[in-house]
Amino acid sequence: MNLCTLCHLCNVLENNIHCLSGATKLFLLSYFVFQGLESYGACQSKAFMKGTLSFVLGATGCFAIQMVLQRKVPYPLQWNLLISVVAASVGSYAITRWETQKCSDLWLLLETGEVPDRSPPRGEYSVWLMEYEF
């Protein structure tokens, strides 16, 4: 969308639809300017739900495994809970970050039409190692 179209849209919103609130004007403006905003929002919502679900399932599964192992090596319940919560938090963070990165790539694809390059940059060490055959 070019600048003239954006300015025209702003004038229409300000002059003809004066009864709408500022938030509604902002929503309408963002809808026309950022076409992929709805898809991105849905993707982010799914990513956060996957993270929450992975935390709940991870903590429950880890706690159940520890309860079985506790029969062989007894230790206090507080350690079971602590280990379960920490392990589930790490796993949930990794899953949420992975899914959020995919949503960011989707946003860039929708806005620019190109898939971002996520390959690691080639540093001097990788070039140096490629000179030698192992």
Automatic annotation (TrEMBL):
InterPro entries associated with the record: Tmem141, Tmem141_sf
UniProt xrefs under Pfam families: TMEM141
Residue ranges of the TM segments: none
Signal peptide positions (record): none
The name this protein goes by in its record: Transmembrane protein 141
Organism encoding this protein: Monopterus albus (Swamp eel)
